[in-house]
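Researcher: Please predict.
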Amino acid sequence: MLLSLSRSVLVFSVACLAVACATSPLGRNQLKLYSSAQLAGMGEQTFDGMKSEQKVSTKVVTNQFVTCVADAITKYVPKSVFAGEWELVVFDDPQINAFALPGGKIGVYTGLLEVAENQEQLAAVIGHEVGHVIAEHGNERMSSSTLIGIGMEATNALLETKQIANNNLIMAAIGAGVQVGIQLPFSRTHESEADLIGLDLMAKAGFSPEQSVKLWENMAKASGGARQPELLSTHPLPSTRITNLEKNMPAAQKQFAMASDHPKCKKQ
């Protein structure tokens, strides 16, 4: 019965894919149900909320450093993705994190600057986050969640109609299968794509791409080695990311050799 229901959800998913399929910058098939304008509006609303709720850094040197790196990276973002002026905010918070949102928004937390030792390593992070925007991973995640939600509701309704015993247990099993079999691998795929898009961006912008590997070595040290198994994680292991980056390093080095700009962003 569980297998039959899972197949029903799969058939429904395939039907939707046929309606709203697209292709990522790296050639992977994508499901995108939302327009770029919708995503940009959501990004702006989210960013405005964060600026009002979180402490913003006022340190001039820190802001100048991060802005210098971000400006160099966003210069190479296709205008079809965002043609306006990117807005950057440095949040005064110890978490090791950064993000980019549709509509030209970038946030960097000061805690990241303790791990990203120089302009190149910061460029690797910002390039990665902007890579998510270029590949429209946010659209894809929202579309996937919408599709899964519809499928789960349809399955639950079918179970109730048929008066199947252990309805809750069956729904829980399907939910766990969807998470481990679809959502987590999806997330890891997005992270790997963003790594490679970011590697290309930083090389084009004139930042040494080899430093992306050093960044993830630093990230591994900062995590203290306490991580979930990769199968149950939303992100690839640092070692996996490093392997993928090294495989694509020759192409990035060629881009770097052709770069017309070589930024000199000062951290201190």
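Model: DSSP finds nine helices and five strands in the chain.
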